[in-house]
Amino acid sequence: MENGNVEEVNEIRKKVRRTWWEDGLEEIVWGAVLLFVSFGWFVLEAKMLSSNIYRVVQFLWAIIVIGCCFVGYWIHRKLKAKYVWKKTGYSIPSYNKLARVLLVVTFLFGGFLVFSYFLFSSRISVLFLGLAVFMGSLVTFSSSGLKRFLVVGFFPLVIGIVGSIANLSLGTSLYLMVFVVGVVFLISGIRVYREFKKKVYNEG
Amino acid sequence: MKGENPIGQILEIDRLIHEPSRLAILTILFGVKEADFNFILRMSGLTRGNLSSHLSKLEDAGYLEVKKGFIGKIPNTVYRLSKKGRKSYESYIKKMEEIIKKRK
To answer: Which option is the CATH number for B2-103: 3.40.50.970, 3.40.190.10, 3.40.50.300, 1.10.10.10?
Structure first.
């Protein structure tokens, strides 16, 4: 029995977790969802809609965002079935540990935000927001071992720091973070998908 | 007692899991909610016949749940760890780590 056995087991686990992100489709879909949400936000903030529609959309905004997440999830599964699983085999990642960690991160995020918003200035909230999103990217990096998720998290961290210094509102900072992460996800996802397609479809 | 004796601990290891190919299969399935034959084949690098044989053994031991369904219109057989399989795997890994720690 060698030390290598347990290390090899950990390596296999990491390799298996990484497969979920190897095609880039998750980033493409969620990048598109984030851009759609940020566009909708922009339209709301700029009050481009007539006042009645604006009031309805504003009221339903949270439901619309959650709806977009479900649609994104459904589209992602369909694309996986059509372009990926035929070549790589079908799998659904286990979210047990990751889900628990993300839940803790979300509660920390909510706690920091509420705490900082009421007790400190919005500058601190903006900084915590950037830090929280960066923490989320750290979680995804630690789970997948893929450095590109660190890069994605870097942008909201910078926006958080700059927004805090420039005294941007929480709403504006959040909108910028959603937009930038959406763009980065989309670009990264397309690049990864192209490499994946070359590798998997050329292998035959 | 067998459990305190290092040799005894080694002898108590689950031999079904200890086989390298089956350990690899269970490790792959531990990292996913479920996966089909082709995914496990790709990840493990085993041959089709070899993989099929090991999956049957694990299924017979109650370590795997097998579900036949469809992805789109294509029939697909999907595997996942049963509660017994998950518990046995975690126990095996814990035992191995203890044995290796004691060896140091």
So the answer is: 1.10.10.10
